[in-house]
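Table S2 (text version). Query chain:
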Amino acid sequence: MTRWTCPRCDREFGSANQSHTCIPGCTVDATFAGRPPALRAVYDGEPFVHVLPEGRWPATGATLGSNAAHLQVAADPHAGRAVVVCALDNLVKGAAGQAIQIANLMLGLPETAGLTAHGVSP
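Corresponding structure-token output:
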């Protein structure tokens, strides 16, 4: 398994297939402790977005073949930044699944029709 480290935030990743974006200007301070529940509240009820429990990081295998996006947020006190990591299957969530999801909404069908929120990998 190839590991790599982001040159901007020094976060280490377990797979060369994982990517992330560092957002300049996104800072954390003492009030950050209340933010993960706020992130959960934003996505509560969204069928395809899952904010993972604290300490569990998104893995691409868990979203493989699904329309799901798995999110995790943590504070990097050394850099004073929030780190948000998202895993998704870019062929489903990023392309075909997105088109089906939007078509469902435009046609008045349930948003989840024909789509799965569970990956095929354990």
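Notes on Table S2: The chain is about 25% helix and 20% strand. The first strand starts at residue 4 and ends at 5.
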